[in-house]
Amino acid sequence: MLELKDIYGGYGKITILNGTSFKIPRASITTVIGPNGAGKSTVFKAIFGLLNIHSGQILLEGTDVTGRTPKQMIDAGVTYVPQGRNVVPQLSVYHNLELGGITARDQRKLRDRIEQVMDQFPMLREFRNRKAVELSGGQQKQLEVARALLLDPKLMLVDEPSIGLSPNLVKDVFRTLQDLRDQGVTILMVEQNAKSALAVSDYGLVLELGQARMHDEAAKLLADPRVGHLFLGGHIDEEETA
Ligand SMILES: Nc1ncnc2c1ncn2[C@@H]1O[C@H](COP(=O)(O)OP(=O)(O)OP(=O)(O)O)[C@@H](O)[C@H]1O
């Protein structure tokens, strides 16, 4: 579905991605973990056309999409749910959904699509006239995910969906992502909450210093003592990965 080939890129003269390479298969959840500053969010920006890429290639279903703009990436079937709260707090749930579809090519179909998405998220239908700020943190995250779905993505980039949420709400958000995966959407997520995220993922990817250092089935990474070490603030030694 998605392949990064030896990506170098960063901010101004600073290089953050130092030869990032990985592939993710269709209809799967992959969680990217790694220490603070490893470049996890930067990988997402690179994929979504928000980063200056110096070299390397990004392939989406075999097509070279390197250097495309965010709008072109949305048209190619990619959506990005950034870190933090991204709903418009004083607008209603329904109005937030309408805004999410603003770039949809067929505005006439948008109303039907919003209805379909509300079928998938009955909570949003129930609270359609409430201000977004009146939803809980987890419900707001679900609104963001639902809004991203209006554009019928094949690939969703979800950056730290669990930030600031209570454990129960985290479970709800993860379950939503699993349902989407079961419907055929490919999900790449970054998570600090690494153990819970890997537990609901198919694959895990450890990023360090802008490079994919480990990439395996999520269950295998969870069982790997080196990953446990990383969660506690360590790093992976060269000899250990050799
Ligand atoms: N807009 C920017 N301009 C300059 N440097 C940036 C910018 N955004 C991020 N960086 C730097 O790039 C590096 C990687 O940041 P990134 O946000 O990708 O890390 P991360 O792995 O997602 O970290 P965290 O787990 O802390 O969110 C950091 O050193 C950060 O300071």
Detailed description of the structure:
- By secondary structure, this protein is α/β, with parallel strands linked by helices.
- Helices cover 38% and strands 26% of the residues.
- It is built from eleven helices and ten strands.
- The protein has a six-stranded mixed sheet, sandwiched between helices.
- Strand 7, helix 7 and strand 8 form a beta-alpha-beta unit.
- Helix 3 packs parallel to helix 6 (137-149) and helix 6 packs parallel to helix 7 (167-182).
- The chain starts with a strand and ends with a helix.
- Adenosine-5'-triphosphate binds next to strand 2 and helix 1.
- Pfam families: ABC_tran.
- Residues 2-234 form the ABC transporter domain.
- One of its GO terms (molecular function) is ATP binding.
Which H/E pattern describes the elements? EEEHEEHEHHHHEHEHEEHHH
Termini Cα gap: 28 Å
State which percent range the strand residues make up. 25-35%
Mean pLDDT rating = 90
Radius of gyration: 18 Å
Q: What is the strand arrangement across the widest sheet? A: 6-7-8-3-9-10
Domain ABC transporter: 2-234
Pfam families: ABC_tran
Family: Belongs to the ABC transporter superfamily.
GO molecular function, one term: ATP binding
